[in-house]
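User: Once you have settled down, look closely at the record that follows, taking as long as you need, and be ready to discuss the fold:
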Amino acid sequence: MADTAPVFPKLLPLPAIERPVHLPVDRPAEVKSVDDLPSRLFLGDLVAESFRLQKKGWVAEWRDADGHLARYRFAGHLSSLEMAYDGDELVTLITAERFAELGQSIQNIHPGAWLGKLGERLEPAYNLRVFPHREDDAVGGDFPDGHLISLVMPVAADRLMDLFDLHKRLQTDATIRTGIDAYLRLAYSIVNYLEGRNPAMLAHPVGLVMHHVNALGTPAADMPSRELDSEGDAAWTLRRSHYLYVAHLHLRDAARLIERLAEAGFIGRKRLPAEGYPDGPEFAAAVLPFGYEYAAKNAWWFDPEGRRRMFYPSFADADERNALASHSGEIFVKSLIRDAQKTASQFKAETVREFMEGMAGGAPVTQPLH
């Protein structure tokens, strides 16, 4: 292989999806009519006809197209919030004196059951894993849109501009009701292909490298090797570099964003057997409780058939995210993306050529792939 590893941009911001909220008054106590209510609240959009003045305050509902509900009953210090996500309901007392303070209230409501509902809905349909939200983990959320979650997924280098353009389209997609921010980072992960459970091509170092480079366009970290676990089971281990999409979004819009990504060919739809990007298990997306992308270390999971184990030493780095401001400007970012796609195209062609030359010479190519 070439002596010098290809150089890829490490960080690529994507266009943000912004959804400003209409907030006519600052305090729930100031609401006198439906026109004073926020246009969104946690799990839905304002249902104007639901507003009713009551003896000690008012009640109103906010609903989502998928059936999720938030019902706010304002009665001074006896106020309550009722919410239902995919049929799972809860009620909590509210002490916030300002609408903006409701963001703190949502952080006291654990979304574990709701994230579980999301997993039950999405995992059978898409190539993704939904990580559970444990009871003792912190909760991320804000006003007006409620619980935050994170989404990560490998992205083929030759499709980076397609993802950038998809985010531009999402900016005017009326079905996406809440804000989303996302970026791409050059990441590192490991895939263990269990011997005897995968196609023959994926039980050979050359086949594994070609499989990876053809799919994601970025280098393997080194030549794949055969390893044994403590019980003597064998697996071929691929250490790989690749672009990873990191998105922060609200639970309310998770299913819709994932469907948009699937429609555009970035998340595979569940079908068996499935190989190649984005359908193979090693290209699966992961839905995470908000903040896991920075806090979780050495995260791993098996595909449902037990053929492969995906391992991420980390999903993202908070310092990298803080550095995104220095990568601003659409023209600049698009030039970086074009550079990355050109580098990937050249690297693919060089990898194929050098392996073909090695095979023609009668000896397998065994040099590290950087």
